[in-house]
Design goal:
Length: 91
């Protein structure tokens, strides 16, 4: 059985064919936080995909939220998201 972070990563890779996909589970840093009581985790995502070329930040976030929608209602309490087009990566 895969972890929630692995499930998020698998979905993002399958959907966005990213050049980079980092998913970090930061739930332990939020132990005791009221949102953690619901069972939802805190995750940080960095996603670099050609799908984001020409899209603004809000549109990119909406795309990601759309593909994680069912998890956003149960498994994910907070998602810190950096969504970049390949042309924006400088490092």
């Amino acid at each position: 059985m895969s972890t929630r972070a692995e499930q998020i990563r698998e979905r993002l890779v399958a959907t966005f064919a990213p050049l980079e996909c980092q998913v970090t589970d930061e739930s332990a840093l939020h132990a005791g936080h009221p949102g953690a009581a619901s069972g939802g985790g805190h995750f940080r995502v960095r996603l670099v995909s050609a799908r984001f070329e020409g899209e603004n930040r809000v549109a990119r976030h909406r795309l990601v939220y759309h593909y994680l929608d069912d998890m956003m209602h149960s498994d994910i309490h907070a998602l810190a998201l950096v969504a970049l087009a390949p042309s924006e990566v400088t490092d």
